[in-house]
Amino acid sequence: SCLNAAVAECRDCGLQLSKRTLLENASLTAAEGLLFLICAVGWTVLRKAASRYLFQPLARWCDLPSRDAAKMPESAWKLVFYMASWSYSTYLLFLTDYPFFHDPPSVFYEWRASVDVPQDIAIAYLAQCSFYGHAIYATVYMDAWRKDSVVMLVHHMITLALIAFSYAFRYHNVGILVLFLHDINDILLEFTKLNVYFKNRAGVRHRLNDIVSNIGCCTFAISWFWFRLYWFPLKVLYATCYSSLQSVPNIPFYFFFNILLLIL
């Protein structure tokens, strides 16, 4: 079978073979790397400006407790980004001619190394890749440090590697599916956090925010199950673990790519 052939090939994997496969199949230019760095810096500058002139004044105006006021700009920033990125992924999957959501195996149809990435998908990749580059810096130097900050830092690094890897090897079609299925949970998470922060304003507990935050927790749990535990294996892992070998029997870095997806 194709899977047995992939396993047999993997036994012969070594540094030289990996290097040759990388050189033969990866496509990433210096200009694209420079654009990534510029956009990552741009996200950082934009976040600092939004926090200083929008989110922090809003926290002061609402008279949030100091602890919540310190965390609120971070969640507001992430909510705005994830809403925009998820909306764009939704547009690509449901309002264009891309069939990837309804026909997951199609993500690997006509795959070949160094194929041109459609501009609309390239825009999504640039935004996401540079955002996670910014997020690594932000976790260390801008975000409030938490018990899970190290875990988040590792998550951002893996996500950045997966986005860059999938772009370089032209697995961008499946990448759009992954972004769509993951970003919705981040929207609900940050929205719920904001309502937790806004429960106490000017020393008064606001019941509406309390109710909304509880609803948000329930909605997040449901969306996590539906998008990440049901649709993600059904659509993404099915396409990458099985369909990819049917369309491209010698698909490069098959195991590496799927391991990153499983970790994510």
From TrEMBL:
Compartmental location: Membrane
InterPro entries with a match to the protein in the record: Lag1/Lac1-like, TLC-dom
Pathway: Lipid metabolism; sphingolipid metabolism; Sphingolipid metabolism
Coiled-coil region(s): none
GO molecular function: sphingosine N-acyltransferase activity
Domain TLC residue range list: 70-264
Record's catalysed reaction(s): sphinganine + octadecanoyl-CoA = N-(octadecanoyl)-sphinganine + CoA + H(+)
Cellular component terms per the entry's GO annotation: membrane
GO biological process terms held by the UniProt record: ceramide biosynthetic process
Residue ranges of the TM segments: 26-46, 79-101, 121-142, 149-169, 175-196, 208-227, 247-263
Bilayer disposition of the protein: Multi-pass membrane protein
Keyword field: Membrane, Transmembrane, Transmembrane helix
Chief place where the protein resides: membrane
PANTHER family named in the record: CERAMIDE SYNTHASE 1 (PTHR12560:SF58), LONGEVITY ASSURANCE FACTOR 1 LAG1 (PTHR12560)
Name this protein carries in UniProt: TLC domain-containing protein
Source organism (scientific name): Scyliorhinus torazame (Cloudy catshark)
